[in-house]
Each structure stands twice: as structure tokens, then as C-alpha cells.
Amino acid sequence: MNDAFRPDVAERLAPAPPPAPEKVDPGPAPKGPPPRRRSLFWRIVVVLILAAAAVVGWQKFEKNETAPKDDSKSDRAGSERPTPPQTVRVATVATGDMPITLDALGTVIPFETVTVRTQIAGTLMEVGFAEGQMVRKGDFLAQIDPRPYQAALAQAQGQLAKDQALLAQAESDLQRYEALARQDSIARQQVDNQRALVAQDKAAIQTDQAQVQTAELNLGYTRIVSPIDGRVGLRLVDPGNYLQPSDSAGLVVVTELDPISVVFSTAEDNLPRIAARLASGATIPVTVFNRANVDKLAEGTLTTYDSQVDVTTGTIKMRATFDNSKRTLFPQQFVNVRLLIDTLKGVALAPNAAVQVGPSGNFVYLFNGDGTVSKRDVVAGPSDAKSTTITSGLAAGDRVVIDGVDRLRDGAKVTLAGETGAKVTLAGETGAKGGDAKAAEACAANLAPEAKAIYAAAAAGFPSATDPRAFLREKTADLVKAGAVPKDGARAGAIAARDCLAQLPATPVTQKAAVPGAAP
């Protein structure tokens, strides 16, 4: 019997059943995404909501903009709120003269400047001038030690006397030789030799005379005098120094101050007109001002111009001559030059502020007298700091707007500044009564400090001034010079003060208008 079929053996040989799998404890279930991922999710949600809101708002805005508007409602609202009249100031066009001027930059150049130097070598013994002294031609300036030159002169004079004696002896011998030669007592050659000796002595005397003149000239050079009329500068050498003609510095510089000239340059395009005026014999006045172009220094005339144009700048130099007896001009001083070429007589003059520039050219706003203005095209000519020449478009007596033109249009309604029911004083006119001193004081109370100072300085004379604008500029310039008003704020302060000054009564007052808040 096979052992494999035995029950105990079969039981041993049968394969063992597989072991049962072990159960693994799954643990607690997950509770959701981490906190960081949840925060990012809500941020994305908020951004999407804001983007949707922006899109909806933009669509509504586009719809409102493109929707037709109710013109009747707009017109009715405009009629319910009428635009108030623009407040303006006006001036009267006058007839006057317009000078045609050229402005340039110039330098004061003296006609003569001399550096006084010694012409001989020697020790400086004496100085005969004070620094800054005015001297005349021939006045004593310095003394060089003359003793060496006195001795040289004496030596030359002694040599001259010796040679003159030798010449006299030679001439006497020549006379005797000639008498003996006529008697045939001596040889002819001896007479000829004596004549040559006389000629030699005469030549020696000429040389001696030149030596004497040279010694006298050198002796005269030891006394140094002024070669011109003028002013001496600072002393360059002190007494005791040994001087030589090769010294470049010299003793002192003498400069002529009266008369004096100013050299300036102008564009070559101006030359034909200036040359024609000079050729006709006309006198062309020239006025010079200080560096700031405020103070007038002197008045003179144009003398001449250079012979060629500077090709690098396209300008030509000109010289004007001035009487400088008051010493207002000083050599090498920088000045502003104003050249009066010609004067237009009896032309219409409008204030510069009235002339505006548009696409079609110059124009003004003409005050019609019925409370409206009209735009008037004009042709402007030469101008200066105050007025512009009107060659066409205006006549004397026309009133033009000079302040408040920014928002005007043709046919616009306006009111005059300071109008209270009575006649208003127009800019540039006098004698009317339309101002109110209290209103002017109230206006001045709100001004800046520099404008208050200008108002206080000009209030007394502004109403009665023939040219109020020029009067105000003069007072402003005085305050700038005195340091009461800064230069950079003077223009704005003057414009602000002018609006308040325009409200003052035109009749002169006996007391200066008070400025609230201003120092007495």
C-alpha cells in the first residue's frame, strides 16, 4: 500500500491553507483640504466677483453715455442759470508818437588808455601823483635818478667843444696852406690833406652834437609826465625800484574819462537803415542804462560803425559818444544800450495788454458802450514797453479791453471793474468819479504782503496820475530798490495792487489810503 494514501501521511502531505489576511486599522477619516488651499480658494472667488462687478458697471456707463440726451432739459437748465457778465477793464486808444528803438548790450570803452612806462633805465626817485587823481597832459608823474644822464650830457658837450676847437685850428691852417699854394711855395697834396682834415673835424662836430641831443633827451626822460588828460589808476611801482624800458607792467595806467564811448553790436539787418540816417546828417540819439536796465546813466549820439560785419555772429559793431562830466560811465562797464532810430508821429497807440494774437493775426476786444464787446482785427506796428502802434483797425478814442480778455468772445456782455452805477474811471483817463475808497481798502485787505506794500506806496498818487500804469511801475521799482518788495514777486504784486487801486476815486485825496494789516 502506498504510503501516500495512508491517512496520516496524506494529512501531512496536504498543502496548508493560506493564512488569513490581517486587518489594518484605517485610522480617522480625512477632514478636508489644508487651511492654505482653502484661503487661496476664497481669494480667487473674491477676485472673480470684483471683476464681474466691474464689467457690469462699465456696461451701464457705456449705455448712459451713448443714450440720447434730453436737449430740452439741458436748454432749460442753462436758461435757469445764465452766465454772469465778465468783469473787464478798458483803456482809451490815444494819438501819440512812437519811438522806433533798438536794444543792445554794450561795453564802455575809453577813447585813450595809456600805460606809462619809463623810456630809460634808472632808479625811481619820486612819485608825483595820488592814486585815482585826475591829471592833465604834461602833469608830473614820476622822477628817475637824473645824475648819470647829467654826467653823460656834460661829457658829450665837452667832446663837442674839443672837436670845435680842432676844427677852428684846421680851418686856419687850411687858409695858410692855400695862400702858400698860390705862391707855389708848398706842394698841392699838402693843401688837399688839410682840406680833408677840416672835413673830418666838421663830421666829428656833427656826431658830437647828436650825442649832446641824445644826452639831453635821456635827461628829459628822467622826468615822466602824463601823456593825456585822464584819471590815473593804482600805482604799479614804488619809489626805490630800478626801472627798465623792458618792464611790461609800467608805472601807472592813465585813462581818459571825458568824453567816453560805448561800443555795442547790432544785427547786420539794421545797418542799412542806420547808415542811411547817418549819411543824411541826422543825429541818432543813444541812451545807456545800468546792468539791471532800470537806471538811465547817460545820453549820447551814435558816432560811427565798424567797416565789416562779424561773419560768425552776423552783427556789426557801433560806437556812440557820451559826455561823461558826471563820471556816470566807467571804462569796461557793462551797459544796456537803446538806440533811437526814428519816431513815428501822430499814430494810434493802444496798450500792449489790449492787443491779442489769434490764428488770423492780431485783434482786440472793442468796448461798445452798451455793455458788450466786439472782436476787432487790427494791424499792429512797432511797440514799446507801454503801447503798441495800430496802423489799421482802430482810431483815437476807441475803448479796448485791457484786463479780463481770457474768457471773452465776440458780442459778450461785460461790466467794467469798479462800476457802482456811476461813471467809471477808465484806465488812462482822469477826472471821473466812480471809485470807492472803502471798496479799495477792503480789496487791499486781502492782498499779499508785497502787494499791500505796493498799494500803500501808490495809493496817494495813483488816482490823479496822468499815466497810472507808468506811475505804478515807478513806485514798484522804488520798492524793489529799497528792498521792501522782492524782485521776483514785484510783477505779481503790482498786478494785484492795481486791481485795488483802480477802485480808488479819481479825485486826489488829502491823506494816503490806509491798508488794513499793512505797517504804518
Topology readout:
Layout: H1 7-13, H2 35-66, H3 71-80, E1 86-92, E2 94-109, E3 113-116, E4 122-127, E5 134-135, E6 140-144, H4 147-182, H5 188-221, E7 223-225, E8 230-232, E9 242-243, E10 252-255, E11 260-267, H6 271-279, E12 285-289, E13 296-305, E14 315-322, E15 334-351, E16 356-358, E17 361-367, E18 373-377, E19 379-383, E20 387-392, E21 399-403, E22 414-416, H7 437-444, H8 449-458, H9 468-482, H10 490-501
Parallel strand pairs: 1-22
Antiparallel strand pairs: 1-21, 2-11, 2-15, 3-10, 4-6, 4-9, 5-8, 6-7, 8-10, 11-14, 12-13, 12-15, 13-14, 15-20, 16-17, 17-18, 19-20
Helix pairs in contact: 4-5, 7-10, 8-9, 8-10, 9-10
Determine Rg (CA atoms, Å): 52 Å
Alpha-carbon distance between the two ends:
153 Å
Percent of residues in β-strands: 25-35%
Adjacency order of strands in the biggest sheet? 2-11-14-13-12-15
**What can be said about the biggest beta sheet?**
6 strands, antiparallel, barrel
Mean pLDDT comes to 82
Could you tell me the number of beta strands?
22
Helix % is 25-40%
Low-confidence stretches: 22-31, 65-80, 419-434, 507-520
Q: Structural class, judged by helices and strands? A: alpha+beta
Spatial shape: elongated
Supply the number of helical segments: 10
